[in-house]
Design brief:
Radius of gyration: 20 Å
Strand content: 15-25%
Shape: elongated
Length: about 280
């Protein structure tokens, strides 16, 4: 007897819950939509229908992988961020919803030229360019493979004609000045790495997570040279771990940068620090 989509979905959600996956129902719905090849918001319409054998097999495989703590985005190939779909590969950090606070903060003031340090999937830079049609930008990261993912996402969102990508270790190969410099640097300490959820620890690139012994190595590297690349009245926006706010502010002050503000994410936690050159 062929199961309905609703029955298969309920079974899959139960399996994920048993495996200890948080938000098992939500993840099961996203996986079912991908297995059926429909948009998640259209899944309700398919609930009474029987699920075909190939779709049922895909869903079963997806559920098994998620139960082993593979993130949904890495199973289905991407995730939505800021209203756009971003492809996710093994070479980039899985975009987090809290990073949207950085984009929203950046959009709170005008800019024409933006630099994204550690561009990853491109979710920050591309979202900014999609919202500011006259802006142009540069994204840098450590490997060509990472930049290939960002470039593909820029093409898919329709901003590839206004951005360029280059291999660089922070400011190492960067030239020129920018109205806005943004980054979501790695900030996990060595001691914290083992405590991360397996979705992050086992599937995000280590270079996108590990921030050195105290989690501040990237902030020091960025702060040391940000002033050389900020246009007059230009802004530096950095994502932070809420519990590392004070330490990051100290790093910026030691580099001679003026802190403008600390901005919360959707849950009210300190998430973004904004600074300017004096």
């Amino acid at each position: 007897m062929t199961l309905t989509v609703a029955a298969a979905l309920a079974a899959g959600a139960g399996s994920l819950a048993t495996a200890g996956v948080e938000d098992a129902g939500r993840d099961a719905r996203r996986l079912m939509a991908a297995a059926l090849g429909v948009a998640p918001d259209r899944l309700t319409l398919a609930m009474p229908e029987g699920i075909a054998g190939d779709a049922a097999a895909r869903f079963e495989d997806f559920v098994a992988r998620r139960a082993s703590r593979v993130p949904v985005s890495r199973i289905v190939g991407g995730r939505e961020f800021g209203g756009h779909w971003f492809g996710v590969t093994p070479h980039v950090l899985d975009p987090r919803p809290e990073t949207e606070a950085l984009v929203e903060t950046a959009l709170g003031a005008p800019f024409g030229r933006v630099l994204d340090l550690g561009v990853g999937s491109g979710c920050i830079l591309i979202s900014l360019l999609a919202a500011r049609r006259a802006a142009t930008g540069v994204g840098v990261d450590l490997t060509p493979e990472t930049l290939a993912t960002a470039s593909a996402n820029a093409e898919a969102v329709g901003v590839s004609d206004r951005c360029e990508f280059a291999v660089s270790d922070w400011f190492g190969s960067v030239e020129g000045v920018y109205d806005l410099i943004v980054s979501n640097p790695p900030y996990v300490t060595e001691g914290e790495m083992a405590e991360l959820a397996p979705e992050a620890r086992d599937h995000d690139p280590r270079t996108a997570l590990a921030g050195g012994g105290d989690g501040l190595d990237a902030y020091r590297a960025i702060a040391a040279r940000a002033g050389d690349h900020l246009a007059p009245d230009g802004r530096l926006l950095l994502e932070i771990a809420p519990w590392r706010r004070g330490a990051v502010l100290d790093v910026l002050a030691a580099a001679g940068l003026d802190t403008v503000g600390v901005h919360p994410d959707m849950d009210g936690r300190d998430r973004v620090v904004s600074a300017r050159a004096p």
